[in-house]
Design goal:
The protein is α/β, with parallel strands linked by helices. It has one domain: TIM Barrel, CATH 3.20.20. The protein has an 8-stranded parallel barrel. Strands 8-9 form a two-stranded antiparallel sheet. Helix 6 links the parallel strand 5 and strand 6. Helix 5 packs across helix 6, helix 6 runs parallel beside helix 8 and helix 8 packs parallel to helix 9. 43% of the residues are buried. Bound molecules: magnesium ion.
């Protein structure tokens, strides 16, 4: 694959991310796929989807897990509802994540990713050990499929994330780095964080955001690529210094406004192409 193929976060039926046709119209060659609903995760639908992707000339670079009942409404709601941290949904979500990994294998995709949720910063918190254990379990399942697991960044500082990954202690555990999330959640300067965790970064989201007045308590604002506080040129230059050559996957989560979403992603593609030409 060429260096830095452009990508977009896309979905079949789950509602997050753009539709495939939009990716095709914008000339985008790769997608990260938001895992479809259970009824769609069948061998037949995997084959039909692969046939369609082949026609459109699109490659899937990762399948992203997501779960019923997750809400990103505000930071406390994320803590309560997202990923494998909430105890009451953990067992069923762990099982579902394994099924999603198996569906990714049907699609021939060797990267599975997820928001693990808010990992407690205190390693002596019993919840911390529980999340380590369940992440290990999913890594081991993915290993059986010859897959890697990529953790989405944002909820944790770079240091907490590094500690967590070291504690999970699995060779197929890596990072999907989202610079905007560091700002939106108030977890630290994205470029400094990227430098710290860069050796583990195997995929990225190209997303932009503005710091909130009260970082970590209130959401920052997600904005179109290039209009926020990330500094996308510096982001790409840092990826280049780290030797990262993988996809640049644009994420713009305003599915309730599809026309605006498409236009903004189109401008994001232009920006990334300009920067690719400049930085190479
Ligand atoms: Mg992201």
């Amino acid at each position: 694959m060429e260096k830095w193929p452009i990508g977009v976060f896309a979905s079949i039926d789950a509602g997050l991310g753009v539709k495939l046709d939009v990716a095709h119209e914008l000339g985008i060659p790769t997608i990260q796929l938001h895992a479809p609903q259970k009824k769609t995760r069948t061998p037949d639908s995997a084959q039909a989807f692969l046939d369609r992707l082949r026609q459109l000339g699109i490659t899937i670079t990762a399948v992203f897990g997501g779960f019923e009942g997750e809400s990103y409404a505000d930071i406390p709601t994320v803590q309560k509802t997202v990923g494998l941290v909430p105890p009451e949904t953990r067992a069923e979500r762990t099982q579902e994540m394994k099924e999603i990994a198996d569906f990714a294998r049907l699609l021939g995709v060797d990267v599975v990713a997820l928001h693990v949720g808010f990992v407690p910063h205190d390693r002596s918190d019993p919840l911390y050990g529980e999340v380590v254990a369940v992440t290990r379990e999913i890594c081991d399942h993915c290993q059986g499929n010859n897959q890697r697991l990529h953790l989405e960044t944002g909820q944790e500082t770079a240091d907490t994330l590094l500690q967590f990954i070291a504690d999970v202690d699995r060779d197929n555990l890596f990072i999907n780095f989202d610079p905007a999330n560091m700002i939106l959640y108030g977890s630290g300067d994205p470029i400094e964080a990227l430098k710290k965790v860069g050796h583990l970064v195997r995929s990225v989201h190209c997303k932009d955001g503005k710091w909130s007045q009260r970082p970590g308590e209130e959401w920052g604002a997600e904005v179109p690529l290039g209009e926020g506080d990330v500094d996308i040129e510096r982001f790409l230059r840092t990826l280049d210094e780290l030797g990262y050559t993988g996809p640049l996957t644009i994420e713009r989560e305003i599915p309730q406004e599809p026309e605006r979403q498409k236009a903004e992603i189109g401008r994001g593609v232009e920006l990334l192409n300009q920067l690719k030409a400049k930085i190479g």
